[in-house]
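Lay summary. Proteins are chains of building blocks that fold into shapes, and those shapes determine what they do. In this project we predict the shape from the chain. Here is one chain we studied, written as its sequence of building blocks.
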Amino acid sequence: MGSPYFLQENMQKLLGESISASTIYDQCAHLAAIAEPIMAVLMGLAANAGLFHIDDTGNRILDQKPIEKPNRRGKGTRTRSGIYTSGVIAVLENGFRIVLFQTNIGHAGEWIDEILAKRDSALPPPTVMSDALSCNKPTVPCNQALCNSHSRRKHVDVVKNFPDEVEFVVSTYAGIWKNDDDSKALNHSPEQRRDYHAEHSLSVMETLKDWGEAQINGDDLSSLIATCELNGVNAYDYLIAIQRYRQEVSRHSENWLPGTYREAIDKRENQAA
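And here is the predicted shape, written in a compact code that computers can read:
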């Protein structure tokens, strides 16, 4: 599947059969025409699935030129050239799984949008499982589930730069993988496996979430310090001030920027006098 026709021709020669690439193409086109109405039915069923797994892989179409496509979350259009084969696995309520592929200039987020556009509006939002790329986030209502394997892998990729941080993430994630192994050893059904993780892995995920938010808050302080530095403001004095007057900062934060906070202090002291 997916082999160029000339390679299939060469393979047939190696097997002692002489079938030209054009003949192979004609047969595939004939079969595809027969399968087209079946695919239409599968697309309709997939639109109403409760669970989707989506992903992309890069591809190449030699004669494909860049095109203008609408911005999914904005106005106007933008030039697009990236070609991907988008894969979708739609899991129906009865457990039947439908696999769909599309190769074009676009990504899995756009593909799932097209599929869900035909969804029965009376149905609840589905769950869509993907990596954390923003381009794979549907624009239609859904419950988005992100892949822990992708998250762990991205952390491992930067272990040389942040050894202590990555060690914490990886060792914490290990608890989730152990829970998954334990669930499989107990021969849990998918529903039982989900419930097992909800009971045993939720606290692990909350730990990672709290740690991640703490790292982001550290970036907040770095941003404030750098802003002070570029504007000739003493960062130490500024950070002391926003702690000392934290109630006023909370109520009127627009007055407590690095460039204006001294005016806010003077105003407060004048009012007190």
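What the prediction tells us: The first helix runs from residue 5 to 14.
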